[in-house]
Amino acid sequence: MFNAPIRFDLNEWVVLLSILVLLFVYSRLPKLYPTALLVIIWMMYSVLGIFIDQLIGTSKNLDMYDTMDTGQYDWFDIAIYNFAYPPYGYMFCHFFKMIRERTPALLFPFIVGWCVQTTFIEWLASLARVYHYKAWTPLFSFLFYLLLYSFIPFFLRKLESWWEQDPHRQKVS
User: Fold this and answer.
1) Is residue 70 helix, strand or coil?
2) Based on C-alpha coordinates, what's the Rg of the chain?
3) Average pLDDT over the chain, rounded to whole?
4) Calpha distance 97→93 (Å, rounded)
5) Which of 10, 14, 71, 167 is the most buried (most CB within 10 A)?
6) What CA–CA distance (Å, rounded) separates 86 from 91?
7) Cα gap 57→158, rounded to integer Å
8) Which residues are registered as beta bridge partners of 122?
């Protein structure tokens, strides 16, 4: 079962505000993908967040960081996994696709810039006690994001090509 926060303080407010901002921005972006692909992308980022936090953050072997008030899952961890990571990840996919189609030479700088931005946002969240680093550092985050965001475009391209193989499905714009 998931715990309630120990006390409702800055980290919970930061999560709520972040979710509201991310969902607002997400709702304003033109949709480049059919709804079914949006759902797959949303679920991918949610599952990646859960899996990675479980593997690196809270596993008994590594235990590199905690999220929120304790090392245990609480309702705000679930909110982050389901309503913060997915729209942020979708924004990466959205902007990546736009750059890929318009200026492919900027793809590598875009990925590096997105990794810097994501690391900075995570660092700010750590100041608000959303993340509690133990043996983890922002440098590790940057390197991890570099690996992750370098892999996502390959997955995204496979997903798009799989979708477009069926002539009855709407095309990815």
Assistant:
1) strand
2) 17
3) 93
4) 6
5) 14
6) 9
7) 29
8) none
Rounded to two decimals, the pTM is 0.93
Identify the CA nearest to 115 among candidates 136, 133, 154, 88. 88
Q: Do strands 131-133 and 65-67 pair parallel, antiparallel, or not at all (unpaired)?
A: antiparallel
Write down the residue that tokens 């440098």 correspond to. Answer: 139
> What is d(CA 52, CA 54) in angstroms, rounded to the nearest whole number?
5
Q: How many angstroms separate the Cα of 106 from the Cα of each of 35, 85, 113? A: 27, 24, 10
Nearest by Cα to 86 from 78, 75, 74, 98 = 78
Burial category of 3 from C-beta neighbours within 10 Å (exposed 0-12, middle 13-18, buried 19 and up): middle
- Amino acid at residue number 96: F
Nearest Cα to Cα of residue 84 among 34, 37, 25, 168: 25
Distances (CA, A) of 150 to 8, 27, 124, 136: 36, 25, 23, 21
pLDDT one-digit tens code per residue, 103-144 = 999 999 999 999 999 999 999 999 999 999 999 999 999 999
Cα–Cα distance list, 60 to 46, 89, 93, 112, 130 (Å)? 22, 27, 32, 31, 20
Tokens matching residue 79: 């909110």
Residue 135 contacts by C-beta under 8 Å, 6 or more apart in sequence? 62, 63, 64, 65
Q: What is the DSSP string of 3-48?
A: BPPSS--HHHHHHHHHHHHHHHHHHHSPP-S-HHHHHHHHHHHHHH
